[in-house]
Amino acid sequence: MEQTFLNQIAAAMKQPSGSLPIYRQLANVMGELLAQDDGGVGSVLPSERSLSAGLGISRVTVRKALDALELQGRLQRRQGARTVKGDRMQKRISQLSGFSEELRCRGIEPGHRWISRQTVLPTPTEAMALGLSGTDSIVRLIRVRLADGMPLAIERAAIPQSVLPSSDLVGDSLYALLTELGVAPIRGVQRIRAGIMAKSEAELLESSPGAPLLIVERRCFLEDGRPVEFTETRYNGERYDFLTELGRQ
Amino acid sequence: MEQTFLNQIAAAMKQPSGSLPIYRQLANVMGELLAQDDGGVGSVLPSERSLSAGLGISRVTVRKALDALELQGRLQRRQGARTVKGDRMQKRISQLSGFSEELRCRGIEPGHRWISRQTVLPTPTEAMALGLSGTDSIVRLIRVRLADGMPLAIERAAIPQSVLPSSDLVGDSLYALLTELGVAPIRGVQRIRAGIMAKSEAELLESSPGAPLLIVERRCFLEDGRPVEFTETRYNGERYDFLTELGRQ
DNA sequence: TTACGCCACTGGTCTACACAAGTAAAGGTC
DNA sequence: GACCTTTACTTGTGTAGACCAGTGGCGTAA
Q1: Average pLDDT over residues B30-42
Q2: Cβ of residue A19 near strand C, that is under 7 Å?
Q3: Do both A179 and A66 map to the same domain?
Q4: Cβ atoms of B136 and B128 closer than 8 Å
């Protein structure tokens, strides 16, 4: 087992992969093998030293790759004992991903119904969140998000016009468009709170006034700190919840 | 500035701190200094090499400490440019910490009022969450959590009796006790959802029925996967919310 | 058979060095 | 003054080697 694993890694590492650092390549390759591998939780992996020797990579570099994989929960290490495969298959909510992507990961077919899509001036809240003056236009997108055809949430997104020139460009996936434009956000902060459904919201969500709402506000940034998006999503509290992992360290 | 910063670190590092690895000591010390320091975001920190030389620590070790701090968002690094102070002062919810600790970080004085504290048989939900049979006893702790004297949440914790022999041992902080017993949890999963306040809950929280609730269920484990704690906390949705960071990578 | 201790091996920490890649400021040229 | 080049310095990546501490299997002694 160990030898085959090592050979698989060696083979995969030989393929050119765009001049990534070695430790990152190794983490990617091992991550894929861990995902494919049928062996359940607890499968034993090659030791650091045999990886180092077998791949011709220094042990320090191997450890950097393993550090990353351990942080992701893909493997478990214990001093003195062998490194074994980890158990976290679920997505962490701390990942930055679009609504559709997240739902598909849960095995649910995402969808949406547009409520409005226009270029307007921001509300004070939106202007504050995006660091704009009141006279800088934004693109505001409001839609009902569907899960397997049922209304799940009301989403209200604001993007500076300097980032997204026109609301007409937006198709199904906002994230896909932002990626295409080269302004995909990579950092963000998120606030989660509870609320009560108003009558207008209850109609859109096919529920009843007074039902619980899970409200998520999200601000996303580019690497340089430029704000890209401010989104408020009001989930039907009876149909949705969040899973978070609480971390070592 | 740089020299004083270096001296402060050197002084703090001299104090014994329980045989932690050097890189962890350094990360802690620098973390505290970053928190105290009045210099705003962007303050320049000493270079890796000057830290290494000034403290008599190898650069690799210094880098491990800086890696940890960067991961926490306490500082920002850019190849070729100097390392500067970061902007995240808030705690990440993905940290595993007790209620009191978390509130103190927000500058609020925590408190609690016991409702009950007993050794009983688990409910089916608790037994499932803790991986127990229905005949294994648990310690169940129910209390109202206070923030600056105001009721903030109702907390209901279940701990296997094999972990916590008696409910009498529990004082103010459950986490402090678990740490003392050597069974402090280090991993966990958390579910966040919304609900509506019932009459009995509204009385305890000094609110009114129908108000929003933020419900957090948490399962915590030891390193080896042994469950330690299952807690449901029902926060007053009008007085509390969660902040999460969404992550690069 | 059981208990203990040894030992090979594992991951955890640390050092010292080297080169690559990026930044910013000093200095010169026009 | 505006612009470009040089240069000193920064962080990023990688290597080789060392020692420590914990694990688990094997052999030996009770």
Answers
A1: 69
A2: no
A3: no
A4: no
Nucleotide nearest to A44 (CA to C1'): C10
Of A85, A118, A145, the one marking the end of a domain is: A85
- Is the ipTM of this structure higher than 0.90? no
Do A218 and A110 belong to one domain? yes
Q: Which pLDDT score is estimated for B212?
A: 93
User: Which of the 72-101 residues on chain A come under 7 Å of nucleic strand D at their beta carbon?
Assistant: 78-81
Q: Which of A159-173, A225-239, B110-124 has the lowest mean pLDDT?
A: A159-173
Task: Supply the mean pLDDT for chain A.
Answer: 78
Interface residues of B toward A, Cβ cutoff 8 Å, are 60, 68, 93-96, 186-196, 210-214, 218, 220, 223, 235, 237, 240-248
Phi and psi of A176, rounded to 5°? Answer: -60, -40
Q: Of the candidates B194, B235, B247, which has its C-beta nearest A94's C-beta?
A: B247
- Over residues B113-135, the pLDDT tens digits come to 889 888 888 887 787 777 777 67
A178-228 tens-digit pLDDT: 766 767 676 677 778 899 999 999 999 999 999 999 998 888 876 556 788
Decide which of A73 and A195 is more confident: A195
Pairing of strands A84-85, B138-147: unpaired
Pairwise CB contact (< 8 Å): A246 & B191: no
Instruction: Report the greatest alpha carbon distance in chain A.
Output: 66
Tokens of residue A50, six digits:
């045999």
> Residues B70, B139: one domain?
no
The string of DSSP letters for A62-82 reads HHHHHHHHHHTTSEE--TTSP
Query: Both B162 and B40 in a single domain?
Result: no
Q: A149 is in which domain, residue-wise?
A: 99-236
CB burial of residue B89 (10 Å; 0-12, 13-18, 19+)? exposed
On strand D, nucleotides with any atom < 7 Å from a protein CB are 9-18, 21-24
Nearest residue to C8, CA vs C1'? A80
